Amino acid sequence: MAVATRLIDDLLHVTVARPDRAPRRRGVVGHQCLAAVEDLRGLPVAGAVEAWCQAAALATADELILAGDALLRRQRPLSRHEELTAAVESAAGRPGVRRLREALPLIRARTDSPMETVLRLAIVRAGLPEPVVNYAIDVGERLLHADLAYPQERLAVEYDGDQHRIDARQYERDIDRLWRIEARGWRVIRINKSHLLGSGGEAIRRVRAALRSS
């Protein structure tokens, strides 16, 4: 039973559910679906975790980390880390399994944007301590979340994407949110895409300096 089809580079990709055999013929690339099939508007498709595993055939390890973080996002997550772990453990022999195994230990839950992941990876790969993702800070009347945080040092690292600049309401909310966090004795470092150019040297320099002065 064919469960999904897609057209890529003039080749028809067809995914079938086990125990059916993946088709092999000219112009067709066959895949086997190892996870449960889900219904999307009447179309049977592979589930989110299975799609992540299939992407490993083409994606880099960093792209799989970004996608994995997105699956475990803070709002309306599509999976749990245990499900990703189980999928990788059963992925022996699949295309890209080495990249899946490389990506899995670096995937974190509760992210809000891909650039938070990019920033976190840059920090860790520079040899700095790994920050906590979307740490909840008690500001009295409610909890506010820092993109990345070092709770012991009371240091918050915020990534400001373009929407923080061009969306007036977002910009106003950011000002109030960060003021409340700083009023609780936290130091806030704001990072944007220019600081992550190349290997992210400027972002790393700022985070390192803040940690040393904490």
Structural write-up:
The protein is of the alpha/beta class and 214 residues long. It has 2 domains: 2-106, no CATH class; 114-213, VSR Endonuclease (Endonuclease, Chain A), CATH 3.40.960. The protein is 37% helix and 25% strand. A 4-stranded mixed sheet has the order 6-7-8-9, with helices on both faces. The protein has a 3-stranded mixed sheet with strand order 1-2-3, with no helix packed on it. Helix 1 (48-55) packs antiparallel against helix 2 (61-71) and helix 2 (61-71) crosses helix 4. It is elongated and about 65 Å long. The chain starts with a strand and ends with a helix. Mean pLDDT is 87; it is low at 1-8.
What secondary-structure arrangement, pairings included, does this model have?
Layout: E1 2-8, E2 11-17, E3 28-33, E4 37-40, E5 43-46, H1 48-55, H2 61-71, H3 81-89, H4 97-103, H5 114-125, E6 132-138, E7 143-150, E8 155-159, H6 163-166, H7 168-183, E9 187-191, H8 201-213
Parallel strand pairs: 2-3, 8-9
Antiparallel strand pairs: 1-2, 4-5, 6-7, 7-8
Helix pairs in contact: 1-2, 2-4
